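A student in our group prepared the protein record below, which I am reviewing. I have pasted the whole thing underneath without changing anything:
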Amino acid sequence: MGWGWARTCAGAYEIVTFPFPVPEGYVPLMEPEFVLTDIWGEPIPEVNEFPSWR
């Protein structure tokens, strides 16, 4: 639930900008790209693993 608002905003941005060409070097707005990463990829980071910019 903690990342719900951030994912909602990122999803809204993706919906608004999807008709436009993808710029070179495009990367997903959020990592992990999928919510169910234990099924589709790497495990979700622990709560105490904050990004370096924080």
In short: The chain is about 35% helix and 0% strand.
